[in-house]
Amino acid sequence: MDPVQPMLVADAELQRALDCGELVRCYQPVYDLATGDVAQVEALLRWEQRDGAVLTPGEFLPGHDDSTLLVRIGWSVVIGAVQRAAEWRHRFPDSPVVVSVNLFDSHLALRELPNRVERLVDHHLDGGPGLAFEVGEHHAKPPRSRTRDRLTIIRNLGAAVVVDDFGAAAAATDDDAGTLRDDACERLESLRSFPLDVVKLAPAFVERLGDDERRRTVVDAAHASGIAVCALAVEDDAGDARARRAGCDLGQGFRYGRPMSADDVAELLAAR
């Protein structure tokens, strides 16, 4: 099956999958490129269907406008991520790792989102660190004051904030690499007022920037704003070398590790 081809899935079928435990979590490590340690683990959602097929959210979530259903699905991933973060912090106190989880648009629309996060963090993490929330780049665009305010509260609770897939839309529409670089630097400058800890660069964006000098300029702009940079979808040694030359702090992709079970993550942390 084409991994980017969405399916037409009825709400009732998706609800059944949620209730029957077919929507499962896996985890992909994010590595610190300077130390080689696992710095973060991103919680990912997969649909393990009865016929053995495994689908990603990009295949089965598009077209679902029922915010209540999406909140239930997404919140189950959030709860699982917090529980894993607490478990790994307890089992591996000398190997701290942050568990990140994506927030749907429907989550960010919830007025009670900060209170929900506060209860989870207080109950499972004793108010300490270990959790990060990833949002799409469109949420960081001014004047998203409501989103900014809610994420600021969440960040003050000890959770990190990550912008995912930065530059993907611009890379798809901008033909000139120099203009793309300048626009990215301007965009990063505008994020100074946003409660942001990490920006994950879209692979298409990194490729479109061309030479390492242009990539380095964008990374330097992020660092000047106090933002760490993660290279996404690093598939091979060449991609790893490119991310390092550009000055990226973190790397995520098959070069470092595929999505894996919680037990496999525990083995990685135990080996550190």
Overview of the molecule:
- There is one protein chain.
- This protein has 272 residues and is of the alpha/beta class.
- It has a single domain (11-270), classed as EAL domain (TIM Barrel, Alpha-Beta Barrel), CATH 3.20.20.450.
- Helices cover 46% and strands 19% of the residues.
- Helix 5 runs parallel beside helix 6 and helix 8 packs parallel to helix 10 (212-224).
- It is globular, with a radius of gyration of 18 Å.
- It starts with 10 loop residues before the first helix and ends with a helix.
Summarize the structure.
The protein is α/β, with parallel strands linked by helices. The protein has helices at residues 11-19, 57-60, 67-91, 105-108, 113-124, 145-156, 168-173, 177-190, 203-209, 212-224, 237-245, 262-270; strands at 23-32, 38-48, 54-55, 98-102, 131-136, 160-166, 198-201, 228-231, 250-251.
Label this structure with key terms.
9 strands; TIM Barrel; 8-stranded mixed barrel; alpha/beta; 12 helices; 272 residues
List the helices and strands and how they pair.
Elements: H1 11-19, E1 23-32, E2 38-48, E3 54-55, H2 57-60, H3 67-91, E4 98-102, H4 105-108, H5 113-124, E5 131-136, H6 145-156, E6 160-166, H7 168-173, H8 177-190, E7 198-201, H9 203-209, H10 212-224, E8 228-231, H11 237-245, E9 250-251, H12 262-270
Estimate the helix proportion, in percent.
40-55%
**What is the CATH topology classification name?**
TIM Barrel
Given the C-alpha coordinates, what overall shape results?
globular
Query: N- to C-terminal separation?
Result: 37 Å
Order of helices and strands: HEEEHHEHHEHEHHEHHEHEH
Quick one: CATH superfamily? EAL domain
Continuous helix count: 12
Stretches where pLDDT falls below 50 for ≥5 residues?
A: none
CATH class: Alpha Beta
Tell me which oligomeric state these chains represent.
single chain
Report the structural category.
alpha/beta
Percentage of β-strand residues: 15-25%
Could you say what the CATH architecture is? Alpha-Beta Barrel
Largest pleated sheet: 8 strands, mixed, barrel
